Amino acid sequence: MSTIHVGGVVLFGKKCKTLEEACRVAFTGDEIVLHKNVSPQQAAMVPSGVIIRGNNHTITTPRKKYAMIIESGKVELEDIKFQVSKQSGAIKASDTSLTMSNVSIQYMWRVGTREKFSTLWIDEFTEDGKSIKQGTTVNIENCNFQTGIHVAAEQVKISNSFFGNLTSPTAGIRAIQIISHDNRYTNALLNGERILKSDDDTSEGNVSIFGNVDVNNLTAKFNLAEMNSKQLKKYDEVRNNDTALSSGTALLRIQGATGSIKNLRLLKLSPETKELMNSLVDKDFNMLEIMGDKTSISIVESQLPEGQAIFHSGNLILENTEDHLSWRYNPKKTTVANRNSTSNLFNSNEQKQETETALEKMDKLIGQDGVKKRLREIINAAKMNNIRKINAQRNGQEYKQPKGFSNHMVFSGPAGTGKTTFARLVAQALYEGGVLKENKFIETGAEDFVAEFVGQTRPKARETIQKALDGVLFIDEAYGLDETGQNSSFNHEAVDTLIKEMENNRDRLIVIMAGYTTDMRNFFAHGNEGLQSRFNTWVEFDTYSTEELNEIMELQMANSHVLYDENTRKALRQGVKALSQEANGNGRSNGNGRFVRNYVQKVLESRDSRLATNVDQIQNMGPDEQQTVLNTVIVPDVQAAYDSLHKQYQLFQGGN
């Protein structure tokens, strides 16, 4: 180990004139110390195992190049200031474990807001670009990166640092695991695929969070009043040129995330900032923005002040929260659950307050009485077993789970009998009972576990499973993972990974496999013994009776606000009776609840086809009469739907 000095008057150690030269002569374990500001003409190629100490000197980047390139190994940087010129960057790294302490990266004054070059580029994706390399880490402490950056690694740890700037392009951090403590973020994207663990962080505008989140004590604020006129103009330019900010300014964005945010504090805009916002092109400001069909987020023990918010899609749970936001939302793509909270969302005619427990919802489902009884037994057993475990831990005792006990389940039975619906309610019930940490339900199939090429199945399967941790992993038609078929080697690797992850995460994961009864029994009979031993609980779903199908049909009609008289009701029920038998014989996937959905859809399509021939007449009606006509189904609509489905079923069965 030796010390290499760049500049200055030194008595011991090697001395170099430039940083590039120092990196060329350095070996693993060496330390490079700066005694002056430097301006590399070419990128300094930093070798593995080197520490660079800047003594708070400045490195000015060469134009259209990086100041440092790190291609492998462990590297440490400390007490360095990077000044970045146009179309250039401070650090580019790959295949490395990089630690940065007291490092700052700032643009030179003449760099414009259209700058697309990432000043810090750490890219640890596999060659196909689909997943992050294992074993790559980035540690950031007491750093200041007021520029556009790109960081992708297996693990990123950040503390006491500042990321992004309102006048800089978006900063992005993506990792399998992000651990963030006491940081400030602006114009930043944080994506923790397995976990984004955030404590005591601050959003200063336009911060988006993705992945599985566990956020505590997050403050969000926005203050344009601190900016001068030139900075305000730059902010307006950034807003109009950065696609990540295309939907407007928001204190916080939640995009495709699952998990919880506890103690969220959204600070109101000052009068000065409100006035400045009105003077800018960007007038669409939201305190909070939620989007993504897979979003399922809990906001817990929080105070949400008056202000605008938008809810595009996903699931939101408000728990012990006072919400005074004025929401815009799509009632067809959003659901809200109330856990001892107040919100304008609950008072809406469209967005109903959800106070029912999962078991109460289950009881209201039509049919499957035996399934309901069995699931209650399973849920109660899981809850009591969890209480025993907590009690043992409180008493300092080792808890031993009863031999053969497992929370994993198999749901078997015909298609359309509600297996997915019941599984989703089981996930909610176990969350409500304290067995699961999150109300999380990840729906998958065999294709989510098995890759096309050798070596890719294991990471793909692991990635799918990791998304369900602390919740329920639902695998539909699980026999697609059959280890005896054409894809036996790939499927074997997927099943082997599943078993290992179930074992490693036994307290954080419940797996429910579902499919047709015969196929599921064959799958387990000829499959991995380790899989068989973990699925001792089977729940068999029954085919719906004709009366139950009629009840389901009438419920779906009511949910669609459909009107009809008694004669039409009789015709609808006769259609269910006649067609349900044909549907059950028309392939395994067309019967039961799926048949009812198809039937109702056909009836409504027939109604709309009839109404379309009288559009002018309908448009001249009064509002009340028009609403009645548009929502009413008559007997000819039912007959047309029956004829269409009958022909379809006959065609598939080879009839005339």
From TrEMBL:
GO terms for molecular function: ATP binding; ATP hydrolysis activity. InterPro entries: AAA+_ATPase (IPR003593), AAA_lid_6 (IPR041627), ATPase_AAA_core (IPR003959), CbxX/CfxQ (IPR000641), CbxX/CfxQ_RuBisCO_ESX (IPR050773), P-loop_NTPase (IPR027417), Pectin_lyase_fold/virulence (IPR011050). Residues 405-524 form the AAA+ ATPase domain. Keywords: ATP-binding, Nucleotide-binding. The keyword Hydrolase does not apply. SUPFAM superfamilies: P-loop containing nucleoside triphosphate hydrolases, Pectin lyase-like. Pfam families: AAA, AAA_lid_6. CDD domains: AAA. It comes from the Bacteria. Belongs to the CbxX/CfxQ family. PANTHER family: AAA-TYPE ATPASE FAMILY PROTEIN / ANKYRIN REPEAT FAMILY PROTEIN, AAA-TYPE ATPASE FAMILY PROTEIN _ ANKYRIN REPEAT FAMILY PROTEIN. This is Putative stage V sporulation protein K. The lineage of its organism: Bacteria, Bacillati, Bacillota, Bacilli, Lactobacillales.
